[in-house]
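Posting for a labmate who doesn't have an account.
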Amino acid sequence: MATTMMVIMTTTATTTTTFNSTTKRANQKGKRKHTIFVESEEDAKTFDVANHFGTVPQWADRAFNRPRMETLRQSALAVVTKQTTMHDDDTDIDDGDQRKLSLTEQQLLQERKLQLKLARRIQKARSAAYSEMEARLKRVETLERAEAQVTTEKLVAAKGRKRKIQEAEGGKPAQYKWRRKRLR
């Protein structure tokens, strides 16, 4: 009968532990782990976690965000390609340092111009938002006055004795006082 071995890799420790398939696991509750089955004890001893998961050995003990080597190569290639396309004209050896310096100065100037442009755009959007907010507040105020006026006119038109306390002024309606009416 062939017994299969299993390798348990805990992500909190970088060492791998080997267990026979018939033995119980050690008390490892709460730890994240991967269980990997191998054919023999020799395979368990020579097991390489980074090679198995296809990642860098520094990230082999992670349970998440463990990029594969192909992904890392592609991203590094993309960065190198982007840098070479940005600096295609830097092939001269004689004035290479001066060109790089001037390119960096040009890049700094461009970056400063972009920041100023962005700051102006943000300031313009902010002032537009404030003016819109002021217009809305003014509209709310006029609507509240109109509502108060209509409500007052409706109450004045109703039955009952009333007397005017204060005249209308500044867009506000006149104030009235009603005489108490006994309810039966």
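Reply:
Got it, the structure tokens are right above this. Residues 13 and 73 are 27 Å apart (CA to CA).
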